Amino acid sequence: xxxxxxxxxxxxxxxxxxxxxxxxxxxxxxxxxxxxxxxxxxxxxxxxxxxxxxxxxxxxxxxxxxxxxxxxxxxxxxxxxxxxxxxxxxxxxxxxxxxxxxxxxxxxxxxxxxxxxxxxxxxxxxxxxxxxxxxxxxxxxxxxxxxxxxxxxxxxxxxxxxxxxxxxxxxxxxxxxxxxxxxxxxxxxxxxxxxxxxxxxxxxxxxxxxxxxxxxxxxxxxxxxxxxxxxxxxxxxxxxxxxxxxxxxxxxxxxxxxxxxxxxxxxxxxxxxxxxxxxxxxxxxxxxxxxxxxxxxxxxxxxxxxxxxxxxxxxxxxxxxxxxxxxxxxxxxxxxxxxxxxxxxxxxxxxxx
Length: 353
Known about the structure:
Blueprint: H1 2-21, H2 27-36, H3 40-48, H4 57-87, H5 91-104, H6 109-154, H7 159-188, H8 192-205, H9 209-222, H10 238-254, H11 258-269, H12 278-305, H13 309-322, H14 327-352
Helix pairs in contact: 2-3, 3-4, 4-5, 4-6, 5-6, 6-7, 6-8, 7-8, 7-9, 8-9, 10-11, 11-12, 12-13, 13-14
């Protein structure tokens, strides 16, 4: 046992000596070559084996510090470039950028964290696209179902008409189940707009108990509508409640209270018989929200450029509340948070000196 305790450190020391001996007297040249190829990990690993007894130890340590700075800049550039590629929809190129950088700096926690965030963003984007495909199929099926039903009623002896109607109804059930699953996942992520889009369509396709429960969960998250002034009349009818919601929505829309307008319109869309103009209202509101988000994003950029990072962050968070899935806004928020964290760290260091 004592023999092993003595041998292990000796073997490790010999390994380090052997590692450096492979470069003979040309360690400087090897390191310069790696740095020129941006192989910072190899250069730093080699310098990690240098012993203080070497004549050129101080010079090599100065070189190591310079390489560390280059490696940090390389990390920042990689994260920025990969983020820009992702915003352009070039997800494969963005992942390749990280993989190349990690092959050169395999121990970089910043690169590993950045790649993990990119994978999360890509997964969220794929979820959104999957939902868009399901929504398109569901909307199409909603238009087709009445046609299949009418044809089957007009030709009750037609085997093909009855079969087509049965298959369409089965497809509606499957789509409703899938939309309900995705809607619940969106609720867990607090992406209420995605949850509203999927669950309201799921309910129109098939009013199953599970889909009804999911819609009730959504209503609870959205919160109750603002109660109208007390009336001596008895209980409101569904039609009166829908009219009241529509009036409240228009007040919020006219007052440019986009967050409240989004909430009220989501409640309207979940009504058993939503107003006929609901689709048009949704289109108009989405356009106004997109414009507001763009305006807030630009305001934040102007503040950020002037070094007003906290105010820029507050503006971008306001934009994110209106459009939680906006990747551009999310990227700005992450960048501002990183800058503020670094500034706080520097201030703490100065305060401790």
